[in-house]
Amino acid sequence: MTDRQPRTLLGTVKDEGPYLLEWICYYKLIGFDRIVVASNDCQDGTRQMLDYLDTVGEITHIENSGQHDGEPADPQNRAYDRFWSDETIKASDWVLVADADEFLNIHTGDGTIDALIDAAEARAGKRVDIISATWRVFGNAGIVPFRDEPVIAQFTRSAPPGMHSVQRYTAFKTLFRPHPVRKLGIHRPRLSPRFQEGRVPLTWVNGSGDEMPERFLSQGWRSFENSYGADLVTMNHYMVKSSEAFLIKRYRGTANSDDDERINFRYFETFNANDVEDTTITRHLPALKSAIAALKADHPHLALLHDQSLAYHRAKLETARQELLATRPDIAARLGLTT
Fold this sequence. Notes:
The protein has 339 residues and is an alpha/beta fold. Helices cover 36% and strands 17% of the residues. It has one domain.
């Protein structure tokens, strides 16, 4: 046992039931001791799964659907404010804010948080306070069906490494020690004035362990040529998953709206990146599969809730597929969907 404070993962979710167990088990596997998840307006059983996981001590669940006076209307920012009002979260050793389609991929040592911190501090030659990991955007790898299989096993094709002409491909997510932080953000924390203005020094490094330009102390959410690095860590971002999974998540079903926007197909075309193969994260796959299986075996009710969520998504898929085939067979064909 260690006497340090926990490494804490913070996430916000809505209707992510089929993917929850993999995501939670993965982050525990790489060294996060505490996982705090806020959910809002879920229809697919996500809330019930999170409630159960909270009850058995696997995570902490915050029901985030209601808005109190003075809170942000946006559920994600509302959750961030609620997270950061918790002094036990602020007392964490390290904190990461990540979505359920984001998997921190550590390329050094045994692929754990300990290995990343050790390597980053060895590279910097001093204590590191903040580490930013640039997205690696993954496409559908040509997979059409919605399957109950680990995301990191199915989708192994991505955008090329390095900087990319699509600006949103170069966003980063940030692992940080809490002491300099005033407010949480999607991509990076907002720093307290004394750190933001450089009056109190801190060390912020990129995914190669090289120091970030000073301007990032006050602003910036993506990498540039002079700030990009990925030798030690990247953030795998599975933005579309399979064609059917994408349809389930993005389908709007509003017949009087722009047809492309009904399923946000432009998003699919932008982020369905399959240029190169990247299987680096799959070194964790055997342990991940074992962890998921053990969690289900230990908690049969959780396994049942998982299966019920899958059934909800499959029913939603069938409705969306039939309507899309009837109204826009051209888009259905581009997604690889058939009868």
